[in-house]
Amino acid sequence: MDAMHFDMEKIRGLRKYVTVSHSNFSFHINFFLMLEAINLSKKYSGHNALSNLKLTVGQGEVFCLLGANGAGKTTTINLFMNFIQPSSGHVKVNGLDASAQPQDTKKHLAYIPENLSLYGNLTGLENLQFFAGLGGEKPDKSSAENLLQSVGLQSDAVHKRVSQYSKGMRQKVGIAIAKAKQADNLLLDEPTSGLDPQASNDFAQLLQEMRQNNVAILMATHDLFRAKESGTHIGIMKAGKLIHSLDSDEITLTELEHLYLETMKSESHAEVNH
Fold it and tell me: Most CB contacts within 10 A, which of 53, 84, 191, 204?
């Protein structure tokens, strides 16, 4: 039997499709682009919070944005969530324009901020049912209990008030809400900030599970180790610009740390380097 030939095509550094060739046939396997920033900019009173960002995240990919405070990471997340409007450029979610179709795009998005706002007087179970219900996917009690336990929340914590939870436990409820919503895309803004090493590792494992289910993940973080370990792609931002964009398997953690520190020290803010 003749061997098949696999040829990977790329678009803006991310996989779009694989061409599978055989002596008798050829076909494409699609890798859908889920999140796109197209020449995206945001200005506040003349200040460029974000400048001409070009970024794509495909199914099953984890794009980690690194940068100091004020680099533009949170602004990028907020634009994808349609919390703010772009000064120019476009945000697309599953091919839909976020500004033109905000309600439609939000159906495909789940969001976990640095400090997740849950109702402290409600249990983890009740919070999950409430917030999942807002998205139209309220699970019954048994399903909600199983979902919370599947993200690592201990069974005796499921029925405790969230006011008694650690930050790591609250973030697990956030992941459960995102899974209940069955969103195609997950946006994360410093989700592991303040977590102890075990909780941070647990959170990373949950991200990998979602990635394996073809969820597209965009995460803003200060954590170089977590970006290297969890990300399929890494971007380094400075002063509102994406300075570097690379595949995580192209660079070691030591090299990433060196590149990050050199970028932070550099006075120049050149266009993106791949």
Answer: 191
- CATH for 5-265? 3.40.50.300
- Residue 244 CB partners (closer than 8 Å, separation 6+): 234, 235, 236, 259, 263, 272, 273, 274
What are the pLDDT digits (tens) for 32-81?
A: 779 999 999 999 988 899 999 999 999 999 999 999 999 999 999 999 99
Where do the structural domains in the chain lie, given as residue ranges? 5-265
- Which tokens belong to 230? 């969890």
Distance CA 50, CA 255 (A): 26
> How far is the C-alpha of 36 from the C-alpha of 113, rounded, in Å?
20
The answer to pTM > 0.90 is no
Q: Say if residue 9's pLDDT is above 60.
A: no
Q: How far is CA 45 from the centre of its chain?
A: 28
Residue 215: what pLDDT? 93
pLDDT in tens, 103-136: 899 889 999 888 888 999 999 999 999 988 887 7
Output the six-digit token pair for 88: 């120019």
The answer to whether the CB of 76 falls within 8 A of the CB of 53 is yes
